[in-house]
Amino acid sequence: MAIQPTLRLAEWCTVALFVGLILLVFQQIATDMAAQGIASGGPYDNGAAYPQGVAIILGVLVLVQAGLLVAGRKVASETTSWGELVRPAALIALFALYLGMLGWLGYHIATPLMLAGVMLLCGLRRPVAIILPTLGVSFGLAWIFEAWLKIVLPGGIFHLNIAW
Amino acid sequence: MIQALMSGLDLMWTPLSLGLTVLGVVFGLIVGALPGLGPLMGIVLMLPVAITLPPVAAMGFLIAIAVGGSCGGSISAILLRIPGTPLAAATLLDGYPMAQNGRAADATGIAISASALGGLFGGIVLIFFSPLLASFASQFAPPEYTMLALTGLIAIAVVSEGSLLKGLIVGAMGLLIATIGTDEFSTGYRFTFGSYDMLNGFHIVAIVVGVFAISEMTMQVASGGLNDRPAVGAVRPSFRTFLLTLKHWVNLIRSSAIGAFFGALPGAGGTISSFAAYAAASAVAKPEEGYGKGAEGGVVATESANNATVGGSLVPSLALGVPGDASSAVLIGALLILGFFPGPQMFQQQPEIVGGVFLVYLFSNVALLFVGILATPVFVWVLRLKKSYLIPVVLLLCAIGTFALQASVFDLWVMLGFGLLGILLRLGNYPLAPLVIGAILGPLLENNLRRSLLISREGFWIFLDRPVAATLVAANVLLILGALWMGYRRRQLKKKMQEPNNTATRSA
Questions:
Q1: Which of A4, B151, B392, B446 has the smallest C-beta neighbourhood within 10 Å, fewest atoms?
Q2: Across the interface, do B191 and A28 touch by the CB < 8 Å criterion?
Q3: ipTM surpasses cut 0.85
């Protein structure tokens, strides 16, 4: 049976995320925080007690949520195809690639490439309709941040910074 | 308070503060008019820019976005029958029929005038009630603050979209996220995994931008229609609509009062208040007023209420440091980054900042009236923008703005990480606001809880020994029980409504 990306699947994924988070809290308390000596003592010294308390409350709530999911109280019939998720996933991948390249290529090369990529992904095809807004937005925002707000944007290996 | 307003006038009456407030109104109207964005998104996108500015100018800019954004949604609601924001959902009940009857310019003009007047009413409530609340809260000690922070979090979780349980789960997650970094008391490192970048925890702006903006843009891409261009005709409202609005002055005052009241309640908000005001207005209206068929009063009620809510929501935000909704949570975050701690101390130690914030709020509503009516044709033109242009620009704004905080690429990855978290939470129908409120209220809650336990000789009993703290404990319990009861009643009602259908199906 093929797994459909349903609301129910998304709900189980979030439950899994919360369980992972709770386990991480307890793992960190037992190892890192215990090693630092902040996992015991009174309210002043015990830096682990509060996150532990919140994690326990979160655990109880997640348990109830998982129980509701098992009991089928929140059954959802909405289904979608994996194909529909390709475009949003590509957007995230493209944006992650941009963040990865930002330091290396610098703002003035990486940004127009990212903007053009997202516009292509959104279905724009005419080169002029892509290139002009891409350059305009990229340089316009660079001007606002660099010339007005005095924020130095990444220059990359080519040290591309415009002296506005 | 007069002294605070006078000292705030010096900070507010500068070309930078005034100019940015007007710019904020324009930007707010644009993001409000564009379906899928809204005032919260506008504040989120401009937060990184604002925190580089002087405090009153920064707060003026952000508050003006909230004010403009609360009104902007009505433009698309009236012209396209698509509320730009949930705040304007009730406005289309009468606004769209008015446009259909050939009165689009009147409807937008009335919406803008009512928003400005409602906002000014909210401002008066803010100026009168927040000092009173702050003065009352100045007697609070850590136990009261602990419970107050909990009340804020629970109230937001209760009224957020989705179930109470999901709201509480996400709120608790926000509290955990706030613990990342160096512990203030023990100076130990928590959940830093040896990373130098995580010693101060995650920057609240990176969290907010990721959770709201990145996830929203991804959802917009998924929803399609990226190259659709809405067909909107030219609309040119005039200042005559201001007089049309004033004709409904009783409705205006009543709806503004409802809006300010709901705004001051943590968790309530503009959507609830505009529907409540509409219900109140239509209940007392004469049949010939034609509510639902294009009544001016309907637009006056909803728009004055949702803008008065902005002022109301600033009351607990400024006086107690407890946000009334997600937008005011981000505004509190901005104040914290600017080095101010909202609450009674701010009223005592920095009255000029408080006064300045009050004045920029009032000025932003005056600016809304003029900018809104004069520049409506521009906002109508913006409505024709394709999402395929809007999405990349918003993404770039997110990236460049978040980078600008600390010139840190790490913040950008945090933003993307929280973007992915936001997408997952949206897919699972979890509300996002409690996460941000949890992350903002987390330090307030933890610090005061630990201080309370340090003071206490009998552990948690300290919260029941003190009358105000005990009242807040009771309020929290009642909030949860009330939400559970309402959920139960809703399920029963749904079941009852389905029963005849089931019987009919069986007999067929």
A1: A4
A2: yes
A3: yes
